[in-house]
Amino acid sequence: MPHKMTPxxxxxxxxxxxxxxxxxxxxxxxxxxxxxxACGQIGFLGMPRFDPDRCQEGCRECAEACLPAAISIAPPxxxxxxxxxxxxxxxxxxxxxxxxxxxxxxxxxxxxxxRRREDLLWARAALSEDGVALRRGIRRVFGRSLxxxxxxxxxxxxxxxxxxxxxxPYYNLHRLGVFFTPSPRFADLLLVTGPVTYAMHGxxxxxxxxxxxxxxxxxxxxxxxxxxxxxxxxxxxxxxEGVLPVDVYLPxxxxxxxxxxHALLMLLDRMPQRVRAGRQAEx
Amino acid sequence: MPTALIIAFWLWVAGLALALARASRAARWVIAVGxxxxxxxxxxxxxxxxxxxxxxxxxxxxxxxLRYAPEGxxxxxxxxxxxxxxxxLSTPIRGARPxxxxxxxxxxxxxxxxxxxxxxxxxxxxxxxxxxGSAALILSERTTVQAGRCTLYMLALLxxxxxxxxxxxxxxxxxxxxxxxxxxxxxxGDALSSGGRIAVGLLALFGFGAKLxxxxxxxxxxxxxxxxxxxxxxxxxxVVLNAAFFGLARLLTDWLAGGSGAFGLGVLITxxxxxxxxxxxxxxxxxxxxxxxxxxxxAENAAIAVTCLGxxxxxxxxxxxxxxxxxxxxxxxxxxxxxxxxGGMFICADGVFASSGSYRLAQRGWLxxxxxxxxxxxxxxxxxxxxxxxxxxFVTEWFTFQTVFQGFHLATIGGRLTLALAGxxxxxxxxxxxxxxIKAFGIGLLGDEHEPAHPRVGWGYEIAVLVLGVAILxxxxxxxxxxxxxxxxxxxxxxxxxxxxxxxxxxxxxxTDTFAFISPSLLAIVMPLLAVLPLLLLANGRxxxxxxxxxxxxxxxxxxxxxxxxxxxxxxxxxxFYSFIYRPxxxxxxxxxxxxxxxxxxxVEHDVADVFGPILFTPLRRAVWRFAGWLRALQSGxxxxxxxxxxxxxxxxxxxxxx
Amino acid sequence: MSESPEATGSAMSPQHLHxxxxxxxxxxxxxALADLEQRCRTAVSSGARTQFVYAWYPGRLEDPELRYVxxxxxxxxxxxxxxxxxxxxxxxxxAIAPLLSWYEREITDxxxxxxxxxxxxxxxxxxxxxxxxxxPLLPGPAPRLIYxxxxxxxxxxxxxRAADVQLLPFGPIRAGVLxxxxxxxxxxxxxxxxxxxxxxxxxxxxxxxxxGVLPSLGAVLAERVxxxxxxxxxxxxxxxxxxxxxxxxxxxxxxxxxxxxELERLYNHLHYLGHLSHTTTLKVGEAQGLYLExxxxxxxxxxxxxxxxxxxxxxGGLRREPRLTEIAPLLRRLGKELxxxxxxxxxxxxxxxxxxxxxxxxxxxxxxxxxxxxxxRASGVDRDCRRDQxxxxxxxxxxxxxxxKSCDAHAxxxxxxxxxxxxxxxxxRVLEGLPAGSLRVKCxxxxxxxxxxxxxxxxxxxxxxxxxxxxxxxxxxxxKSPSFSNWRVFAYTVHDSNMMDxxxxxxxxxxxxAGCDR
Lengths: 283, 659, 518
Description:
The complex is a heterotrimer. Chain A is of the alpha/beta class. Chain A has helices at 9-16, 33-38, 61-65, 94-98, 138-142, 158-165, 198-210, 222-226, 257-267, and strands spanning 49-50, 71-73, 82-84, 104-105, 146-152, 178-180, 189-193, 216-220, 248-250, 275-276, 279-280. Chain A is built from nine helices and eleven strands. A five-stranded parallel β-sheet of chain A has the order 6-5-7-8-9, sandwiched between helices. The model of chain A has no long low-confidence stretch (mean pLDDT 85). Chain B is mostly helical. Chain B is 69% helix and 5% strand. Chain B is built from 28 helices and six strands. A two-stranded antiparallel ribbon of chain B has the order 1-2. Chain B has a two-stranded antiparallel sheet with strand order 3-4. In chain B, strands 5-6 form a two-stranded antiparallel ribbon. Chain B starts with a helix and ends with a helix. Chain C is of the alpha+beta class. Chain C contains 18 helices and 15 strands. Chain C has helices spanning 5-11, 22-25, 36-45, 100-111, 206-209, 215-222, 230-245, 251-279, 283-304, 327-345, 349-355, 363-368, 374-377, 385-388, 409-433, 482-494, 499-509, 514-517; strands at residues 27-30, 49-56, 65-71, 79-83, 130-132, 145-147, 156-158, 166-170, 182-188, 191-198, 313-314, 317-318, 450-457, 460-468, 474-480. In chain C, a hairpin with a 2-residue loop joins β11 (313-314) and β12 (317-318). In chain C, α8 (251-279) runs antiparallel to α17 (499-509). Chain C is globular, with a radius of gyration of 22 Å. Chains in contact: A-B, A-C, B-C.
């Protein structure tokens, strides 16, 4: 190797200037292509949109192509023939390819964080907003800042990859006052990924025990919300269901960094919830 | 001579007799009461010192006189408090008690003589009594198989040292025309050539250094202390160490005062003191046995006092009497505080041993079950040895630094440089000593355990430690008052009342208040007040009920005992950093299954290497053995050879008498 | 890049093209139980390397069959030994081929087959204290797992100073956003005497999840075994199914698969450099590495709609066309930033000082214990299955393989830096010469068929062995992940090292837990 002078990294860094996107500071941006471009998600395929009116009677194609059983065919007497649970969706897009009538269409909807699990189930009538006031006091307790302890309860490392990306210069999570802490002892939020394996069940509970009050729990990724494709089986649970009380659900496989930022800020009442009854408000 | 000291002497003699009659319980109390009388006698005779008493005996035409100098009484008094408590508690090894108590009585009697006797012959006899008493202490206990060998080795070194002292005193005697009375030695310094003065100084440094644990002798300390009990350590590190220091200080400051060569001697003694203190502190930190750790630390503290003595010589050589007096006073103060604190720690160690049967520094959570008495006493003692305010160890350490910092008053660059380097060396020592006592207290006493596996520390130990702890704090807080006890001594030796200039009201200053100041007295009031703030915050912050969670081990429930800090892990970073001194070894042998890739068992061995052992003591010991091997030829068991030898001797005697 | 793509294409013999057929490219033979040890000894002494062993239940019966997969020599097709132990206990081959020990113990855990003379006959994939009513991989519904946590199997510490050795348990929830795994260190202050990585906290039983799934849907599952290896896993899976179906993927799809695989290598290696800089506290280097990774992920997103490149691979080709027109300028920009960045990493002494001589992995150890990917190539083992057991369009796209011989963390960084450059070359070659044509062919493996697929993932060689049942559903899928191999090797570089180097050493291996635990 040729002998070179040790490079001057500080200068190198300064010369590159600021890499961080302003989003979500430009709060006027509405969901859509413009926002996707503003937060680096051009081309992102989010949760498929569902239009039951296009559904063909007797067709089961989508349900059969849906590995995590997010789409199921209800018993004949039910109000809706096809039940869609976005809490189980792994965004594989197989339903879109399998549907002969176009009832499922691709979308860029990624900001799927909700406070109530029911909001991830597609329903004709949107639920009332009462659940939103659930934790209004949170601003008073935490101000605008939040300390997060992440627990990988058996994820595929996809969610971790995106959580790690939050620290990169592009998203620069610290600027929003959110920090990952090494120990649960000084964390406000337990951020859980993965379907909760038998081996991580104990450590997860232990981490929750070690969290000081007031404490919150966020399920990040479809695995943590419902188990997804990987849950169940001989070694896994079905996400945080019945394990810990969850304050925010964020399905996605994996949810992209802006979706995680949205979920964190939503917990702090700094961004509104966008999804109700399984779809974004505007759509 | 104070009557109380005479009472003490006879009580100790009575104790010795009782011990030899195997009435060790009575002997213990008699000796302890004697120690109390000794403290009382020393205290009331200050600050003037005792008047001279001539004993009705003579050794080789030399009348035997006793006279106690103020600094002698001061050091004796501070040494007797831990010694008295140690004897009252006695060694925790029950079978050893009769001999041990006799040894303690001998040591105390010897020390009393060393402090007061005023001629070469009787002084050396007292010195020998003290050494034999010390050896008896440790030999009686025999906690390990090697104890005997180590103690005899110690005795051999002390004898070599005694010869050094004898030679030094004889050289002094020769210079004043053959009188072995110490009264004459005060002018010996002027009579000697500068070479002679340095020779006497070196011989004394060697002789007294063997007992003080100066370079290279600090290495034998843990070998012998480490085989005895804490009670032995409390006597050896207290009154015996103080007596040896008194002997050295008197020789250097009283008898070798002034004249050419004093500067060189001062530099040499300072250097020996500093290097010893650094090495002893570094090795103390690596020990995982209470006694070995404390023994190395004793050598370190003696070396700090010797460094001050060196500084005193340097100042005096430049005619800076006030600073010389300051340095000398600081040295005396340092050892007196050390005796109390070290005694407290040694007695703690005995308490631990009496309950657990081991002197190992390991986390056993002693303070969980102990009363506040042990907690407070041990905390004060450890704080003092770690030089934390407001304890006496902090005060004397601060004074030590203030003394060497004033090296800029010296005329020559050499002198200034010596004290500047000494300051740097002492700073390192202080830092390592701090870590050492954090380790001793944190791992040895605080360390947690869920279910204590041992009975709590006995109440006798707790009370003794508390008494010493309170004495430490009292000494520090009242120092502006107590200091006057050394005023006359300083005046007599340096013509300056340095202790008077060291206190300004309740503030302590290094002669002048423009340089620096502290006040343990005020700190003792202010420091508890500082605790009020966090307590208020705590009281205010309880919005949620207290919920206790387990120790966080990454989500697992681990055994905290298995993963707690061991004495070695605490000190290993230093071992790595100072590997050029320690030359540490770490050997890991692995046992495998099937192939090398499947590890079944690890065998671990680690150690640090001594500095002087391999280059000095081991060759010396080998040489002695080899010599002894040759001499064995004389004991062949052959009758004809013995007859031949006797015949040869007769011829020589006849030749000498007839010729 | 001198050859035009047409010329490259025509120069290839047709049987090399885009096939990964089991029958054509893998030699299978039955080996009697009694001959197993002798055969293994002969194979190892002739320079062959065992890859993995797994058990499955042909015909969904309770009589298991063991499958040993070996590489006779570089450039030759893999060998598969079939062995039916019946009621007998098969011999452990771990003393001959040490890397097989973990696989054998996994078989014991999940299939209940015990091996004779296993050097460490302890649970491996299951945590101590976990057990089943019946072996979980036995065909049928998943059994219940009973778990009462128990102590780990750690070597005994002896000697008079044994009590001085401290045990540091670290994890499974570790500081930072990291995957769950517990590490146990026997240490004395700085010096690590022994290191035990307790993995498999994330064992999800993914192999069992494939059971009964249609081969066409299996890729969705394979993508979710290891998130940052989505393409490699799905591709190995698809190639295994294609081998079973003897299906030939259209040339355009094969080329695009190379593009996806290399995009995956690119963002993984960039993340690696950022993370490695983090451990050497080179802050700007870390930020830049992670920033470049983010750019690479955004390129992935534009091309495929998924930042992890999911949702395109399927047996028989690709599910849809990626958007390629927009990514070319972004890739050029990325390439321009990369050059000075890697050059600076390679000349920063504070960074290199921490890497050079850290975590040395001797060549023999790397070979014996099955180190794979950049890890083995940094220890002088010249293997890369893109070249040695070519698949897909790699034979058409002249490929460079990075190799270093200094065996330390620095060598591992150098190999990855080189591979970043080579990946960009490959991506550009694909973008320039992408053949036109269809994207997908029908791929329906016949009943009771089987196939072996492999890829060179960013972390090393990845295998999928696929068995179908009589109803054309998946009966058994075995995943041999590169991290499983590299985790095994890694521990040997930690014994007798020190704590300060640990994080750097671990980062220099670039391991994932999800892929290893499955």
